[in-house]
Design a protein that fits this description.
The protein has 131 residues and is an all-alpha fold. It has one domain: Cytochrome c-like domain (Cytochrome Bc1 Complex, Chain D, domain 2). Helix content is 38%, strand content 0%.
Length: 131
């Protein structure tokens, strides 16, 4: 069950500043994998986006100045596989990382520890619909 809270903004920051992760994390939330490949649902991802990511990326995903980047046709998202994006969202990226162009922390899972791998796959599927 997803619960809205102030920490949901952190996922939006994660998407804004995205950083690495361990591609060895499995789709079943266990290190090293072993589970079936998860497939994202864009409609469910839109709900995750609205309750989590919109706080920094805006309700229309065009970004908010000083917070999250525009996610439409975003090359960071477009250049990575779903597995790489899941790993990034799990890891986050601190503002101190030289690759962080936003200058704000992107906490792991946007600070929303309740998001599971399916939620992450869903929001990635939604992001891939943005052009």
């Amino acid at each position: 069950m997803r619960r809205p809270s102030a920490v949901f903004a952190a996922l939006a920051l994660t998407l804004a500043a995205c950083g690495g992760g361990d591609p060895g994390e499995g789709a079943d939330n266990e290190p090293g994998g072993g589970g079936a490949e998860l497939v994202g649902d864009a409609a469910a991802g839109a709900d995750v986006y609205k309750s989590t990511c919109a706080a920094c990326h805006g309700p229309d995903a065009t970004g908010l100045e000083g917070l999250g980047k525009d996610l439409h046709a975003n090359t960071f998202v477009g250049d990575r596989t779903d597995a790489e994006m899941v790993a990034f969202l799990k890891e986050g990226r601190p503002a101190s990382d030289p690759a962080n162009e936003a200058g704000v922390d992107m906490p792991p899972k946007g600070g929303n520890a309740s998001l599971d791998d399916q939620d992450l796959h869903d929001v990635i599927a939604y992001l891939r619909t943005l052009d």
